[in-house]
Every structure is written in structure tokens, then in C-alpha cells.
Design brief:
Blueprint (H helix, E strand, L loop, with lengths): L2 E8 L5 E7 L2 E6 L11 E3 L5 E4 L1 E6 L12 H4 L5 E7 L7 H8 L5 E7 L19 H10 L4 E7 L2 H4 L5 H13 L3 E4 L7 H7 L5 E3 L17 H9 L2 E3 L9 H9 L13 H5 L6 H9 L5 H6 L3 H6 L16 E7 L3 E4 L5 E4 L2 E9 L2 E4 L7
Parallel strand pairs: 1-4, 6-7, 7-8, 8-9, 9-10, 10-11, 11-12
Antiparallel strand pairs: 1-2, 2-3, 5-13, 13-16, 14-15, 16-17
Helix pairs in contact: 3-5, 6-7
The chain binds zinc ion.
């Protein structure tokens, strides 16, 4: 039986607790815990460190076969303070087995939002051929990997769908209804029109790339588009999905002025935007929101309990008795840092969120500071 005791754990609400873990499950949370007389491996956290439930990045790419959007799950995962990564559609039904086998022994927990194109993102335009959308193949893949596939992904923008108009959207909804899975739709240049996507998505479906600066985005040049406000009211979740081209400080500010907030903060990371920016990692993406109207609690909720809710991952996302013992330890480092968005605009902030360690699979792993940006 593996046991671990975490002492001096500073929660972001100001509470300080000890946490006792047995077999990778949170057993007890309390003050000055003394667990039996046996010697138990114990970790003392520093006073300037916070603890949260392990971070979840709800939009990443880590199926290494497809070089255009791929990265190593450990690099974007636990080594970046992220204990769970959700791959957003890199794999489809034809290659889910290969993706599963690639990630099943990873330290980082990996899940898939299966692409409605059975090919996955083998090329930029995976939905330009309607024959790639094979509902039976999707259902079979889900039957085979019911714990690995946690949602449906459809990339509904011009360069992906070619001349197929609204058809991929209708197919995506059909698949999501048949499998009873949440649907994440990527938005970009029309077609598809954002208004159409907002109209068809179901409450609790997800729009990613919400702060993209493109014409078919949420901002019409003067206002937030009415269809976006309606979608928000209807309970559609907004996901950040930073990516190479999809995050603008200006659009974030307009959204804030209209009281529109993302439900989840995600990176849309892959090897190029990790190494060359503007993404670098999830912590840098979180820092961008922390300096634009989001409290630390809101930022942390957007990478823990919110994505866990979105994808029905009811065993993670909270520090509570019975939950899986995934933790991210982090600091607010008071040093200047330059942050850059997808349009090349940069700002300098006075502090940033920096993960210092993770606890995953009953192991405490200290992290090296990354030299980002
Ligand atoms: Zn993506």
C-alpha cells in the first residue's frame, strides 16, 4: 500500500492543511495530522507555495504521429505542472488504438476528444472529405475505449471543412447525441458561421478558441455578437484554446467588459507554439488571465474543477476525501515577465504563476523552472 503525507499545504483560500494519501486516493484532510506510529513518507511544502488539485489542460495535442499538431504528453503534462492533458481531436477512429498505446504508460493522465474525422488531424483539412465522417467507426472506437474517449471534437473552420458547408456541424451533433458525449467545436474563419455554431450547440457543449481575433470571432468590431451572448446564456461552455493564432488580449478585454468569462483555460499546445511561443505552457496562459480580471481562484477553477465537470471526470479536479490524489504545487513569483498574444501584442506583468512540483501516482516530483518568453 502506498502512503504519503503532505504537511503545510497552503490552499488558495488561505487555509493550511495536511493531506494524507493512501493508494493514490485522498484519505484525510486536517490540521496537524498524525497518522499512526509507522513512518510515512512526508512532504513539507514551503510557506510561499500553494497547492491545488492537479491541473487539467482541456485542449492540447499529444498524438505524436501527426507532426503538424503534436507534442510529448509528459512535456506538456506533468513537467509543466499539468497532471491531466486532454487531446483535442488529433486522433480519429482509425488511429485511436495507436494513440491509446502511445500514452497508456505515461505518468501524465491522458484523455482523448475523438475527432469526428476518422483520420484525425493527418492534414490541415481533415473534414474536407465527408467520407471521413464515419459514425459507425466513431461509435465502435468509443465502445472500445469508453474510459479514454471523453468527448467529441470537430474543427469547424474554412481550412478544415473545405466546401462542405454546414454538413460537418450536423454530423458532429449527431455523433454527440448518439454517444451522449460533450462536443468541443473549434471556431475560426467562416464558413462555418459562428452564429450557426452557437445556434446548434447544446448546453454544456464547448466552443474553443473563444478569444480568437478573426472576423468570424465573438467581436464584430464594436460589440460582442448577440449569438455569443445567447450561447453563453444557454449554458454553452467557453474554452480558451490559446494556440498559435487564437488568443488576443483585446478580445479578452472586450469579453471581460461584457462579463463573458471562459469556463476553462487551455493552451492548445503543440511542439512549435510551446518552443517558439506564444503559448509556452499552461501556466503562462493562466498568468495572462490572472492579469486580466480573473482572480487566482477563478484561474485555478478553470484548470481543475471546471474541466473535470465539462468532461465528467468525477474522480479529479477537487481536493476532497475520495478524490484521486493529483496535485499541482505552485508559486506566484514576483518577477517581471513579458507575455505575448497571437497577434504579437505584448505586455509586461509583475508576477507570474509558476508550478514547482506535482504529486501524481503517489509520487512527489519537483519541477525545473522553464525559461519561457
Ligand atoms: Zn487544437
Amino acid at each position: 500500500m502506498s502512503k504519503l503525507l503532505i504537511k503545510n499545504a497552503h490552499f488558495i483560500d488561505g487555509n493550511i492543511f495536511d493531506i494524507y494519501i493512501e493508494n493514490n486516493i485522498i484519505k484525510t484532510i486536517g490540521t496537524n495530522l498524525n497518522i499512526s506510529s509507522q513512518r510515512i513518507p512526508t512532504i513539507y511544502l514551503h510557506d510561499d507555495e500553494y497547492i491545488s488539485s492537479g491541473w487539467i489542460d482541456s485542449h492540447t495535442h499529444c498524438f505524436e504521429k501527426f507532426e503538424i499538431y503534436a507534442d510529448n504528453c509528459e512535456e506538456i503534462g506533468y513537467r509543466s505542472g499539468v497532471t491531466t492533458v486532454i487531446d483535442a481531436g488529433t486522433a480519429g477512429a482509425d488511429n485511436i488504438e495507436e494513440f491509446y498505446n502511445q500514452t497508456k504508460n505515461c505518468i501524465t493522465h491522458v484523455y482523448s476528444l475523438l475527432n469526428i474525422s476518422k483520420t484525425g488531424i493527418y492534414a490541415q483539412n481533415e473534414l474536407s472529405d465527408m467520407n471521413h465522417i464515419d459514425i459507425k467507426a466513431f461509435q465502435n472506437a468509443y465502445l472500445q475505449y469508453p474510459n479514454f474517449i471523453i468527448g467529441v471534437k470537430a474543427r469547424l473552420s474554412k481550412s478544415v471543412i473545405g466546401s462542405n458547408g454546414d454538413l460537418p456541424l450536423y454530423k458532429a451533433i449527431e455523433i454527440a447525441n448518439l454517444t451522449d458525449l460533450p462536443l468541443m467545436v473549434h471556431i475560426g474563419t467562416a464558413p462555418l458561421e459562428l452564429s450557426k455554431i452557437c445556434q446548434y450547440l447544446r448546453p454544456k457543449d464547448i466552443i474553443t478558441h473563444i478569444y480568437n481575433p478573426k472576423e468570424n470571432g465573438i467581436w464584430d468590431g464594436q460589440h460582442i455578437k448577440p449569438c455569443v451572448l445567447e450561447a453563453y446564456q444557454k449554458g454553452i461552455y467557453f474554452d480558451l484554446g490559446h494556440g498559435t493564432d487564437s488568443f488576443s488580449f483585446d478580445i479578452l478585454n472586450y469579453a471581460n467588459q461584457n462579463h463573458l468569462k471562459v469556463y476553462s483555460i487551455s493552451s492548445d499546445i503543440y511542439h512549435r507554439n510551446r518552443k517558439n511561443g506564444p503559448v509556452y505552457d499552461l501556466a503562462t496562459t493562466m498568468t495572462k488571465l490572472y492579469h486580466h480580471g480573473y482572480s487566482l481562484k477563478e484561474v485555478i477553477d478553470c484548470v481543475t474543477i471546471h474541466p473535470a465537470n465539462m468532461f465528467h471526470l468525477h474522480h479529479i479536479g477537487k481536493i476532497e476525501k475520495g478524490y484521486q490524489a493529483d496535485f499541482t504545487i505552485f508559486k506566484l513569483t514576483n518577477k517581471a515577465k513579458k507575455l505575448i498574444d497571437s497577434t504579437g501584442k505584448s505586455i509586461t506583468v509583475s508576477s507570474y504563476i509558476q508550478p514547482t512540483a506535482v504529486i501524481i501516482n503517489s509520487k512527489y516530483i519537483q519541477l525545473k523552472e522553464k525559461n519561457n518568453g
